[in-house]
Amino acid sequence: QVQLVESGGGLVQAGGSLRLSCAASGSGFSINTMGWYRQAPGKQRDWVAGITRAGSANYAESVKGRFIISFDNSKNTVNLQMNNLKPEDTGVFYCGADVVLRGTILRYWGQGTQVTVSS
Fold it and tell me: pLDDT tens digits, residue range 21-71?
């Protein structure tokens, strides 16, 4: 079993910054990719950014140039630095991880952390 624990959400004014972190814990697993997803009220969960274990990062068009994703191999932790936040960034941010566990690739999710950007 793998657990993902997120931290770092909160309330910020437009133009401000927040940093989210997600730590993966458990035993006998290795990370393939980790990423962040956002779910706005009444909407589906959308992909925001992802990164491979090797450090290759990708971003949704809406956050390119504002968000930076990074992965700490030694801690199995993914971070999302969010700058120049906009009200439309508001939502619950979920960490997702594709891990190899006993030879199988599985997807795990964190519990979510609220990000609210006021105008």
Answer: 999 999 889 999 999 999 998 999 999 999 999 999 999 999 999 999 999
Q: Interior CA angle at 31 toward 26 and 36, to 5°?
A: 100
CB atoms under 10 Å from CB of 51, counted, come to 22
Q: What is the pLDDT of residue 31?
A: 94
**How many beta carbons lie within 10 A of that of residue 22, not counting itself?**
26
Ranges of beta strands (E only) in the chain are 2-7, 10-13, 18-26, 29-39, 45-52, 57-59, 67-72, 77-82, 91-101, 104-109, 113-118
pLDDT recorded at residue 1: 87
99, 115, 119: which is closest to 3 by C-alpha? 99
The C-alpha angle with vertex 13 and arms to 11 and 19, in degrees rounded to 5, equals 55
Q: Which two tokens stand for residue 66?
A: 């504002």
Q: How many CA atoms lie within 13 A of 56 on its CB side?
A: 4
